[in-house]
Every structure is written in structure tokens, then in C-alpha cells.
Amino acid sequence: MGEQFALPEAVEVLRTVHRAGPDGQPTPISACDPLNLAGVLTPGPRVAAVLGNRAVYRDGIPVASLQGGEIQNLADMEDGAGLAVMGLLAGHRRGENGSRGSRRRPATVP
Prior knowledge:
By secondary structure, the protein is α+β, with helices and mostly antiparallel strands. It has a domain of 71 residues. The protein is 26% helix and 19% strand. Strand 2 and strand 3 form a beta hairpin. It is globular and about 40 Å long.
């Protein structure tokens, strides 16, 4: 998916990842990303494509989201995985992990 838009060097990397199979690692993406297919191609609610919203996938399944500053579970996860996913989203909400977070006020220009 998306290979038609990838640089030639990225296509082989995408194929390698695809061949490796599921690894159970949570993968957060911006809800504005074209790969945000939660509720479109997968069962469950959609994650609105709004700046600051995030979706977390695990092995291609949407498992949690951050929408309007609120964390929502989208799938059942065992304790360890659930804590890791919630930590990713909580960090984004607070502005950690290099993100701007959803509650930061814009800088003013004098």
C-alpha cells in the first residue's frame, strides 16, 4: 500500500518490512496520515483526520487513539502492550517525543 508514491529506494524497504511479518510493536501515526484507515478499512470507530489526533496500530490493527486530548482504546490488549500504547499517546498529549502535543498554545510574534 502506498508503494506507487514511494521513492524507488523505499519500495524495497517496504517489501522487507511486509515479508518480516507481525512483530507486536505499537506504531503511532498522525490521524492526518493517509495510512489512517481506522474505521474505514478496519472495524470500529474512525479516528478523525485532525491535527493533533493520533492513531496507534499494532500488527496492522488500530488499537488506540488520541482525539481531542482524550485517549481511547480501540481494541483489547494484554497489560504490557496496553501500557506501552497508552504511554506513547500520553507522551504525545503532554508534548513529549518531539511532538507539539494537542494543548500547547501557539507562539506569539511581537
